[in-house]
Amino acid sequence: MKKVLVTGGAGFIAHHLIRHLLLNTDWEVTSLDRLDYSGNLNRISDMMTEFDKNKQKRVKIIFHDLKSEINEMLENNLGNFNYIIHLAASSHVDRSIEDPLSFVMDNVVATCNILNFARKNNNLERFIYFSTDEVFGPAPKGINYKERDRYNSTNPYSATKAGGEELAVAFENTYNMPIYITHTMNVFGERQHPEKFIPLSISKIKKNKAVTIHSDETKKIPGSRHYIHASDVADGCLFLLQNEKKISKIKKDFGGAKCPKFNLVGPEEINNLELAKMIAKAQNKELKYEMVDFHSSRPGHDLRYALDGNLMKNLGWIPKIDITERINQVVQWTLKNDRWLK
Ligand SMILES: NC(=O)c1ccc[n+]([C@@H]2O[C@H](COP(=O)([O-])OP(=O)(O)OC[C@H]3O[C@@H](n4cnc5c(N)ncnc54)[C@H](O)[C@@H]3O)[C@@H](O)[C@H]2O)c1
Question: Which terminal residue of the chain has fewer beta carbons within 10 Å of its beta carbon, N or C?
Fold first, then answer.
């Protein structure tokens, strides 16, 4: 039976990944998290209620802040892993602008600590570092960034994620470790932090309040993203772990660089106004909204991000469910479980 360590397991995406692993594998999963303002063990316990005792027993919870090294005692407690999937990070852009150094600690120093632990792991088959589309900066209309395009961080959050990526590349080159990097776009799903656009919109529409739509300076063009459901991100991640042979054949396409990178992209590009309308429709409500020029007044926020998903598509992976169905599913679930809106 494979053993997998998921860092940031009490976070939003990682708890969906744990659920996906329980549903689709017989692996033993260890979650490591420090439970900060965005980490919430209730996510894991809530999600686990859908599983029987045998599946629940496959999950082990470890508390640790990765800013500190993994010492010998914790090392012994954790044991060896076949896979390590590193999602723990600070990810709030505004917070990174207020306090960049704490992001260096959480996203670069912490990545070095988990890589150091991983390199002592005798059974390690794959380490996956979860990065973001934001490392490429804003995407002009018509441009979708490929995995090996130039980086252009517009805020400390993205710079520290890019820093973590480069450490992962260095560990593969220096220590010959098997590492992949993924870039993911805006992720949504059940139990997301209520400050994020989709849960916030669900909540505002439910209360008949106006939704703020971030736009350009003319207040006519809304920002856009390729939104992707967290279960699809988890599915893409598992696909990478289960298709090593296929991937090794395309290694020549990485321009000689080791440490393959993969964009996990949502099914279609959608602007924030269309998205808010979808959320309103799923609640049978009229959308009230206000376009706000957020991007020119606040640093670090970009109007459009876009990634090219062709590499994963050519390998045989795309998200299986379209965005309208996914949004509808999340709206209905959230309305029924509205404790997650508070
Ligand atoms: N949410 C998105 O739209 C998105 C998009 C692209 C990439 N990502 C990346 O995916 C990963 C997960 O994002 P998320 O939205 O689920 O974030 P999240 O904030 O919900 O979860 C992050 C988790 O990491 C934990 N954590 C943070 N610093 C830690 C440390 N030093 N030691 C131990 N645990 C620590 C937190 O307690 C939290 O539980 C991050 O690496 C993020 O950069 C997210």
Answer: C
Centre of ligand 1 from the C-alpha of residue 218, in Å: 33
- The residue-averaged pLDDT of 147-164 equals 96
pLDDT above 90: residue 235: yes
Look up tokens 């999600």; give the residue.
47
Q: Whole-angstrom Cα distance, residue 90 to residue 96?
A: 8
pTM of the model: 0.96
The angle that helices 110-119 and 156-175 make with each other, rounded to 10 degrees, is 20
Interatomic CA distance for residues 98 and 262, integer angstroms: 30
pLDDT in tens, 42-66: 999 999 999 999 999 999 999 999 9
The residue contributing the CA closest to ligand 1 atom 28 is 89
| C-beta of residue 232 within 8 angstroms of C-beta of residue 268 | no
What are the structural domains, with CATH classification, of the chain? Answer: 3-187+226-264 (3.40.50.720), 193-224+269-304+322-341 (3.90.25.10)
Q: Chain-wide mean pLDDT for the chain? A: 94
- The predicted structure's pLDDT at residue 146: 95
Give the rounded distance of the alpha carbon of 289 from its chain centre: 27
Q: Identify residue 154 by its one-letter amino acid code.
A: T
**Catalytically annotated residues:** 157
